[in-house]
Design brief:
By secondary structure, the chain is α/β, with parallel strands linked by helices. Among the domains are: 2-75, no CATH class; 81-309, Aldolase class I (TIM Barrel, Alpha-Beta Barrel), CATH 3.20.20.70. Helices cover 38% and strands 17% of the residues. The chain has helices at residues 33-40, 48-52, 59-79, 113-126, 146-161, 175-182, 198-204, 214-226, 245-255, 286-299, 302-306, 314-320, 371-379, 394-397, 402-409, 420-433, and strands spanning 2-3, 7-11, 18-22, 27-31, 56-57, 82-87, 94-96, 132-136, 166-170, 187-193, 205-207, 231-237, 263-269, 337-341, 345-347, 361-362, 368-369. A ten-stranded mixed beta sheet has the order 13-12-10-9-8-6-14-15-16-17, with helices on one face. Helix 4 packs parallel to helix 5. The chain starts with a strand and ends with a helix. 38% of the residues are buried.
């Protein structure tokens, strides 16, 4: 027998505890220093449990286990809920300092009823029998011009009539005004962004006329929670605002949001995408971001009440007592995610939406699909990316984002490598050693 090619051996940075994880066998264990040293030398441990847990394997048997896990992954993905993004406009009432859509040009920002009807006809025909939900995206989907308001009202009515759950990604400025229109819909979640408390947020995310937005967004969040609608609060982080995370955490705690079961949080990294960020020096890598958050969380325990980082599979393991299923693909594009816009174009995901040269077809005025490009998106996973095949981190990473990989290399079947080992070093310490 030999050591499994899917073993991940990590040692935490401060407490110097060593763990072995294997996503293919589904096991994770703490190791004594002598045991860890044997594994680093390529030697299986003599304990029979070491082989029983899949850390030492027969090569043929592991190949069969890998194939079965892959087939199970494909089967489960076919049952997954599909997220259908709809973009009613690329226009926005904000002037964010890091807008990634700032360079978009659009002939018209008006959503017409015939386009809405064509969208619902298309998803009815092409996603029949699939669990699905629609996410309104933008631009900013909740604008307040009379024409736009009427267009969204009609869209919401169609969505409710079709009994399709709805999510919304909004800057939150007009959320309160739209809440009465949302009462007839099944709301999956409303994602709203705050980049800190007022002094920080209002510099980064102000109206186009320069006016502040923080207080009005907070009122919208309060009203949505009071109405029983789930809210996902997102902070977009970079070097400019990450130090304000403790203050935002305290604000959310004081508001009582963190005690509300309808409230959750996410921290998104501000990074190069489309036209995003004209000051690259402000950007942090994925690893730098979470290193900063760990340091802040050690000094400010309130952060842990506000947000629980994933740190790859660490959070899942701590909350469930087991590892998640192997991840053969972390890119949902053309599998469990599609994007559609008011011009009638179809895209793979939100990372490509609005880039007309990357459109995969149309649903209006006629249905047309670039089947070869769609097939390439559908087939992308760790088995189609040669750089992933021999990587022991592949089943925790899943190959990363296809759009980022193509932007960097020109090829869809290239990896967007995630710092899995480093995230686990932080996460296993954060959840198990401190």
């Amino acid at each position: 027998m030999r050591l499994s090619g899917h073993n991940i051996l990590i040692t935490t940075r401060n407490t110097r505890q060593t763990y072995i994880l294997n996503l293919l066998s589904g096991n994770a264990d703490h190791l004594e220093p002598a045991e860890a040293e044997m594994i680093r030398k390529g030697l299986p441990l003599p304990d029979p449990a070491f082989a029983e847990k899949g850390y030492a394997v027969d090569e043929t048997e592991e190949a069969l286990r890998f194939r079965n896990a892959y087939l199970n992954f494909l089967d489960e993905r076919e049952k997954d809920e599909v997220q259908l993004f709809f973009i009613p406009t690329y226009g926005c009432n904000f002037s964010c300092s890091y807008c990634y859509q700032a360079g978009y040009t659009n002939a018209s920002d008006k959503l017409e009823e015939k386009v809405t009807d064509a969208f619902f006809a298309y998803i009815s025909a092409n996603f029949a029998g699939r669990r699905k939900y629609i996410t309104l995206f933008g631009g900013e989907p909740l604008l307040m011009s009379m024409a736009h308001f009427k267009a969204i009202q009609y869209f919401l009515q169609r969505c409710a009539a079709e009994k399709i759950p709805l999510a919304i990604v909004t800057n939150g400025y007009h959320l309160e005004e739209y809440l009465p229109q949302l009462q007839s819909n099944t709301i999956k979640e409303i994602q709203v962004t705050l980049d800190g408390t007022a002094a920080v947020h209002d510099v980064r995310r102000k109206l186009k006329n320069g006016h502040p937005t923080f207080d009005k967004i907070v009122t919208g969040i309060d009203k949505a929670l009071e109405a029983g609608m789930p809210v996902n609060l997102r902070m977009v982080a970079d070097r400019e605002n990450i130090q304000w995370l403790p203050e935002l955490s305290r604000f959310a705690i004081q508001k009582g949001w963190t005690r509300n079961p309808l409230f959750k949080t996410q921290i998104g990294r501000n990074y190069e995408l489309h036209y995003c960020q004209d000051v690259p020096e402000k950007l942090m890598s994925r690893l730098e971001l979470w290193e900063q958050i760990v340091q802040l969380a050690l000094q400010h325990p309130e952060i842990a009440e506000f947000h629980k980082p994933a740190f790859s599979v660490s959070k899942f393991l701590s909350e469930n007592g087991e590892l998640p299923a192997p991840l053969f693909d972390s890119c949902p594009g053309c599998k469990t995610e599609w994007a559609f816009d008011y011009t009638g174009r179809i895209y793979s995901c939100t990372a490509t939406a609005g880039k007309t040269k990357e459109a995969l077809g149309t649903f209006f005025p006629e249905v047309s699909l670039d089947k070869n490009s769609i097939r390439e998106w559908e087939n992308r996973d760790t088995l189609s990316i040669s750089a992933c095949r021999m990587c022991n981190l592949q089943l925790a990473c899943g190959g990363g984002c296809a759009s980022v990989a193509r932007n960097r290399t020109g090829r869809l079947n290239a990896p967007d490598c995630r710092p899995v080992k480093e995230l686990l070093e932080m996460g296993m310490e954060y959840y198990f050693s401190i």
